[in-house]
Amino acid sequence: MSAPQETPAVAWHDGASGDEQVDTLLRRHVLAVLGPGVVTVGRLCPGCGSDLHGRPWATHARDRRAGVGAGNGSGTGIRHTRPREVWVSLARAGGYVVTAVSLRGPVGVDAEVVQDVAHGWSDAVVLADGESVDGSAGASADGEADPGAARDDRARARCWAAKEAVLKRRGTGLATPMTHVRLAEESGLTDLPAPPGLVAVLAAPH
Q: Could you tell me the pTM of the whole model?
C-alpha cells in the first residue's frame, strides 16, 4: 500500500439529508481514498458516550485476494486485512455535505452559510478576548476591537468555520466554546473552495 497522503482528501456532495445518507457518502469517500474493502462508520460523543451523535469515525479493512481453496471454495476468494483507523470529519451546510478523510491523524472540516452566520453572529460567543474576526490579536489600547479589522459577513463566516474545524480536530466540537480557540495560535488551517454562499475551512492534522 502506498504511503499515507500528506494532505487530507476533501469531497463535496449535494442532495444528502439524513444521517444514513451522510454515512453512505462518508463510506464512499473512504473507499475512494483507500480502495476496495469494508468500511465501517459511526459516531461517538466524547461527552456522554452515545453512538447516536458526536464525532464521526471510520475504519477500513482492505480487500486481499485469497489463493486456491480460500473464500467461497471456488478457488479464489476475498479476505480482508485487519481494520485500520481512518480519521474523518464532515459538515453540512446549505444542502451540501463536505467530508474529509485523513490517514495521518485527527482532522476537522466545517462549512457555513455566510448569511446564516451573519444573522447569528455574536462576538461574545465566537471571539476570544482581544481577538479580531481575522484571527489576529485585534484589540486597541483601550480594549476595543480594531476598527480596521475585516468585519464583513464572509470574514465572520470564515472565522466561525475555522473555529469549528479546529474543535472538530480536537474531538470536542462545540462542547468546547469557540472563545477557547485563538486562530492565530492554530496551524494547518486551509480555506476550501465552496459552493456559492458558503465558506469552508479544513483543519489538517498537526
A: 0.84
Chain centre to alpha carbon of residue 100: 5
Rounded Cα distance between 183 and 20, Å, is 33
CA 144 from chain center: how many Å?
33
Q: Which three cell numbers stand for residue 63?
A: 480487500
What is the separation of C-alpha 12 from the centre of its chain, rounded to a whole number of angstroms?
Answer: 12
| 203's grid cell | 483543519
Neighbour count for residue 187 (Cβ, 10 Å): 9
Q: Which residues, listed in sequence order, are joined to residue 80 by a DSSP beta bridge? A: 63
Which sign, positive or negative, has the C-alpha torsion 188, 93, 13, 47?
positive
Measure the CA–CA gap between 180 and 127, rounded to whole angstroms: 8
Read off the pLDDT of each residue in 34-38 and give the average, rounded to a whole number. 94
